[in-house]
Amino acid sequence: MSSSTNMTKIALVGGEGIGPEVTAQSRRVLDWFATHRRVPMLLREAQYGLVPYLATGKVLPEDTAQAMDEADAILWGATGGPETKEVPAEARKAGGLLSLRSKYDLYANLRPIRATPALSESSPLKARVLKDVDFVIIRELTSGIYFGEPRGIETLADGQRRAFNTEQYTTSQIRRVARAAFELARTRKRKVCSVDKANVLETSIVWREEVTALHEEEFPDLELSHLYVDNAAMQIVRQPSQFDVMVTGNMFGDILSDCAAMVSGSLGMLPSASLGPLDRYGRRKALYEPVHGSAPDIAGKGIANPLGSILSVAMMLRLTLERSEDANLLEKAVDLALFKGARTADIAEAGSQPLSSTEMGDAVLDALDQVAHDAREKA
Ligand code: IPM
Ligand code: MG
């Protein structure tokens, strides 16, 4: 047996836009954990997007596909931006993010929403609304209107175009993502809020019935509530501290998670995890990525906020590597760096001198040294 069998395999795929810049900072953080905490992992970097397309004709070349197939966890950067124009739509689609979510069946997308006190000035919401906000949106990621068939654009007899998509959910698709939400709530404040549009849509009627039935059958000890999606959007802005775990379908989750992102002050701060089904060894494939996109307007300038990606590493430590102590350490270090005033341009106050992506990486590594030292003193 090779000595690498106990190592968790991690593929680092920076991708396009600001993806490679932020992922480079996460790599430094991962190296810190390998060195200082002996976290057993094998890191493999792989390319995605325009660069490999120009070299191989594929946005997702063989080598990258293999690295991702073999990985226990993928740390993804970003895709899209102006590069999109240089890659024909068909080539883009073949290895696109949606097809990867589908290929690895990454049905449970966790998007934690936390208000960091140090950043309350960067949020458009009032400090009193931000108090105690700490919840997770679980978005179903492999079904719903994003993938439903039939879909298309047709030309009618009168020359008009008619475009159509299909929203659909099966019992098992609803139940498995709801189960993920209930299981997570059990480790937190024990409250699940399910979001739908059951006053209008059949998919939502069945969604609500199945979530309710699962709750009664397997999780009666937890609190379950339901909100219509329009009301949920309003409640996220009115009183976000009321939520613990929110579970919803693909498109509602896409929209609500951007809305909720403003709680944290910047889209640049938000991490995410997308989890697949358990395999026979009790492990699940996972893809971790910052919620921000490729941010083409600042790509290549070295000024992007790497914290969304770095906090995604914390989720990886907790969920794939099962090193919750290390995950806590990293989240503490990010808080400490922010508390000490480290700010990239997206979260900097007017008139202050913002840090580059690398300097923010330095600040997190310094903070890691400090929190690790403090933890040792305490022990
Ligand atoms: C997200 C993004 C994607 C989505 C886009 C880039 C396809 O907005 O991950 O939230 O809609 O799922
Ligand atoms: Mg989105």
Describe the secondary structure blueprint for this structure.
Elements: E1 8-15, H1 19-36, E2 41-46, H2 50-56, H3 62-70, E3 73-78, H4 89-94, H5 97-103, E4 108-114, H6 127-130, E5 134-140, E6 152-155, E7 161-164, H7 171-186, E8 191-196, H8 202-218, E9 223-228, H9 229-238, E10 245-248, H10 250-261, E11 273-278, E12 284-288, H11 307-319, H12 324-339, H13 357-378
Helix pairs in contact: 1-11, 1-13, 7-8, 9-10, 11-12, 12-13
Magnesium ion is lined by residues 254, 258.
Question: How does this structure look, described?
Answer:
This protein has helices at 19-36, 50-56, 62-70, 89-94, 97-103, 127-130, 171-186, 202-218, 229-238, 250-261, 307-319, 324-339, 357-378, and strands spanning 8-15, 41-46, 73-78, 108-114, 134-140, 152-155, 161-164, 191-196, 223-228, 245-248, 273-278, 284-288. The mean pLDDT is 94. Strand 11 (273-278) and strand 12 form a beta hairpin. The two termini are 36 Å apart. The protein contains 13 helices and 12 strands. The radius of gyration is 21 Å and the shape is globular. It is α/β, with parallel strands linked by helices and 379 residues long. It binds 3-isopropylmalic acid and magnesium ion. Magnesium ion binds at residues 254, 258.
